[in-house]
């Protein structure tokens, strides 16, 4: 074990009466981590890892300082500029637990493959829950630059529970997803369903990578990674072309909507203001009570024409901008 935050002795894992005690592992990241009780949505079928491996072996082979499994996962996702911290002790100095931050640049396909900063806080903890050695890892990620990205965090929790000891030891992996909303958004349902779907695909991949790492067979075939969790719209078959086309259609519809809204606003503005000046603009003479009033109307005509022409040109410019932007 390379990390200084725990040892390789199962006997030293702190006892716990409930797995909920994992929530008491407080980090410097505050509310970035939700309580264990929030994770009610299981996103993969429980995975049995190779026999003879303990929860300590799982951590040492896959998540210890310097282990390449998660770095490889993010590389295959297409993430670049990865910055990994070593595990650090938590503020209150508990044993067999740690925290760290991961940062990278991810390409978001739903945003035409534009690069965005990806931030992820991580914490782990070992608990001996009523005699069952258990390893928990919680990840809380966010892509602030994406639309609605500052409104929510996607959290994932992996639970590794061990039965038996020595050569008969068996570890089962379970994975859960929870979306922590920081602000109220009207696309909450879509964010929830999409995040859970993408996390499910991610952890199917990660579980297979863990099995390969524990078996020591580097040649084992692992299915390719599908789109990153930061992508917003994925169809059921994972068809990338269909995803791109779907995004383009949605983009065109949004542009058309804003153009219609722009011209509708212009129409309302023009009709409201023209009501009081219609005669002055469109009739050569105006019935007035005095010659002086008539002169005022005549002098105002050119200014009114210039004013309304400027408004029309402004809205035309806005429409062109909306239609031409990516």
TrEMBL record:
Residues 41-218 form the VASt domain. The chain crosses the membrane at residues 256-282, 302-323. GO terms for biological process: intracellular sterol transport. One of its GO terms (cellular component) is plasma membrane. Signal peptide: none annotated. It comes from the Eukaryota. The keyword Transmembrane helix applies. InterPro entries: Cholesterol_transport, VASt. The keyword Transferase does not apply. It is found in: Membrane. Keywords: Membrane, Transmembrane, Transmembrane helix. One of its GO terms (molecular function) is sterol binding. This is VAD1 Analog of StAR-related lipid transfer domain containing protein, putative. It comes from Angomonas deanei.
